[in-house]
Amino acid sequence: MFNLYFISQSTCSILLLLNFALKNVACNPVVRTKSGCLKGSIDRNIDGGKFYQFMGIPYAEPPVGDLRFKAPKPKHPWKGIRNATEEGSACPHRREKRFNQSVPLVGDEDCLFLNVYTAELPRNSATMKLKPVLVYIHGGGYVFGNGGRAKYGPKNLMTEDIVLVTLNYRLGILGYLSFSDPTLEIPGNAGLKDQRLALRWVQDNIRRFGGDPNRVTIDGESAGGSSVHFHVISPSCRGLFHGAIIQSGSTLNSWPWGKLDGAISVVNKIGVKAKTQKEALDVLKSLSAYELVRVLEQMGITECSNDWQDISPVIEYPHEGAFLTKSPIDILNAGEQNQVPLILGYNSKEGHWMNYQQMAAKAMGTWVAPFSWECIIPWQTGIKKGTAKSKRFADTLERTYQTETPEENVVNAWSDSIYDVGIEQAIKFHLKTHLAPIYAYRISVITRLNYLKRSLNLWDKPGVFHSDELGYLFSQSITPKVSPGSPEDIYRRRIVKLWTNFVKYKNPTPDDELNVLWQPVESVDPIKQLDIGENLTFVDTPEARRFVVWNELLEESPFIIN
Ligand SMILES: *[C@@H]1O[C@H](CO)[C@@H](O)[C@H](O)[C@H]1NC(C)=O
Ligand SMILES: *[C@@H]1O[C@H](CO)[C@@H](O)[C@H](O)[C@H]1NC(C)=O
Ligand SMILES: *[C@@H]1O[C@H](CO)[C@@H](O)[C@H](O)[C@H]1NC(C)=O
Q: What's the Cα-to-Cα distance from 428 to each of 327, 333, 378, 551, rounded to whole Å?
């Protein structure tokens, strides 16, 4: 092992010497992966500490041509040294506020790249102690985003002794088109299979960056959080990771899910009559990547905020290489999930994001599903709008949220129905069969670092918005100047410490350095969670009263996906 590895590193160094002046050898780190040599660069963390970065590493063949819409194939080896000094292309999407048609489309179908950040390379010593690895999966509703530094910069996390990996995966129709007809060979979940292939790449290669393949934690927020939960429940991901952090999204939320054969309704909505799945596929094959992004947008979102999406992750028919063939609740009831320690949580006012989208859509004359008490009932309950049961549930929910101002009531109802209840349900079903600790949190800290508040410039609204915590974990293009020792600095280091303690020890508070003991959840009645605010306090969830009502509704009409 050591010899082979040593030789391969030497081969890389010789290649490097042939290609570059000696001066560059000192400045530019080179690593040999199983697919070829990579030249990285050097950057500094928020304390000025040096780390190496390798960006735009291809982990799959470009998913184009015959590979479009299909499961990814591992990258063929390349010759020579590949530049890993710049990020690879994002997958095609409209940046951030996707309902705003003035925001440009970006990205390229050749987008399956990842980035590795590490403070130490094992080039001279095979006895280097390998570091635990954090693999971060970005969010964006399975339709936008990428793993790049503008939003997921490494300078905060690289103050800790870990290796960080960020990655791109396919989005929208390119990532989640699915057909129940096996002869079409597009069973769905290509984007989740991209993520899985990236995790296999980590198993095969991360040692060469000083990372320990036996101590990998996966983490993500929003659609990244539900993606992490998909990996936790997918038997096909067994052994690829050893801990998981799930922020503001899970497979028991309604929005991650699409429907098999969504393509027919997609092409019908753009005015093309397709009678068979094959015809619908031919239409979609003929469109460019950017046309596919626009087609999905033209469908608006849906009539109701908690309706299904036509194109998103699905349960596949059984076949070799499937990502998921059973519903999460069946998997959790049977204890077939990956038994790794978990952190799950949400922010104090997630629902402001939906509220903002409504206001912005109204301002632009575009469509976003309006709020209604019937609409917040998840579609997976099978309850049809307008029925007596739907109205009874809606009345119960409306009564539950009549506590503050009308806007607050709606924001709280949106927070719970779109985000918090899915997390609470995931904790509830995991508790039945999970053998490893489950830690729960709720973020309530507000400073200039809160990501979404800052990017929307919405400081007058109370609470912590969806994705606000990213501004603490990551250095971002919008991060303001933070002075050492300021509250912002203290809070970001604290969150980084909790997360990286979990990466290192599978326990976010292994000692009393943070003056708090974050204990695993034992019951959902009520959930005990770490409130991450100005102070760290271990509390009964403030959402307990609302969760009791949702639990009763979801026991009467369970969340069923098929
Ligand atoms: C590699 O990237 C560096 C820095 O961006 C650039 O100067 C150099 O020309 C690139 N080399 C190749 C072979 O593309
Ligand atoms: C839509 O995007 C354009 C271009 O980025 C921007 O100037 C405009 O303010 C946006 N509109 C809204 C309502 O966000
Ligand atoms: C945090 O703790 C400090 C010191 O105990 C206290 O003064 C402050 O009020 C607390 N903040 C909150 C929001 O509870």
A: 16, 11, 17, 10
127 phi, psi to nearest 5 deg: -95, 5
Find, among 123, 131, 89, 121, the residue nearest to 108 by Cα: 89
Ligand with minimal distance to 362 CA: 2
Provide CATH code, domain 4-556: 3.40.50.1820
Span 341-399, pLDDT tens digits: 999 999 999 999 888 888 777 777 766 677 899 999 998 999 999 999 999 999 999 99
Residue nearest to atom 2 of ligand 3 (CA): 535
Instruction: Decide: 156 and 474 in contact? Cβ < 8 Å.
Output: yes
Give residues (CB < 6 A) around ligand 2: 97, 100, 102-103, 360, 363-364
Task: Give 275's contacts (C-beta < 8 A, 6+ positions apart).
Answer: none
Which ligand 1 atom sits nearest the alpha carbon of residue 83? 1
- Is residue 139 scored above 70 in pLDDT? yes
The answer to whether the pTM exceeds 0.70 is yes
Nearest CA to ligand 2 atom 13: 360
Ligand 3 center to residue 535 CA distance, Å? 6
Q: In whole angstroms, give the CA distance from residue 371 to residue 362.
A: 13
Average pLDDT, the chain: 92
Q: At residue 225, what are phi and psi to the nearest 5 degrees?
A: -65, -45
Q: Which ligand is nearest to the CA of 360?
A: 2
Q: For residue 363, which ligand has an atom nearest its CA?
A: 2
In angstroms, what is the span from residue 491 Cα to ligand 2's centroid?
A: 31
Cα of 148 vs its chain's centroid, Å: 13
**Ligand 3 closest atom vs CA 537:** 14
Is the Cβ atom of 534 under 6 angstroms away from ligand 3?
A: yes
What ligand is nearest to the CA atom of residue 42? 1
41 pocket-lining for ligand 1 (C-beta < 6 Å): no
Q: Name the residue with higher pLDDT: 452 or 305.
A: 452
In the DSSP assignment, the letter for residue 314 is: -
CB of 535 sitting under 6 A from ligand 3 = yes
Is 552 exposed, middle or buried, given 0-12, 13-18 or 19+ CB atoms closer than 10 A? exposed
Please check the confidence at residue 70 and state whether its pLDDT lies above 60. yes
Q: Which residue has the CA at smallest separation from atom 4 of ligand 1?
A: 85
pLDDT for 497 beyond 50 = yes
pLDDT tens digits along 435-482: 999 999 999 999 999 999 999 899 999 999 999 999 999 999 999 999
Contacts of 331 (CB under 8 A, 6+ apart): 233, 235, 337
- CB within 8 A of 273, min separation 6: which ones? none
Atom of ligand 1 nearest to the CA of 81: 13
| Cβ contact 453:466 at 8 Å | no
* Helix residue ranges, H only, 401-543: 406-414, 421-433, 451-456, 470-473, 487-505
Atom of ligand 3 nearest to the CA of 533: 13
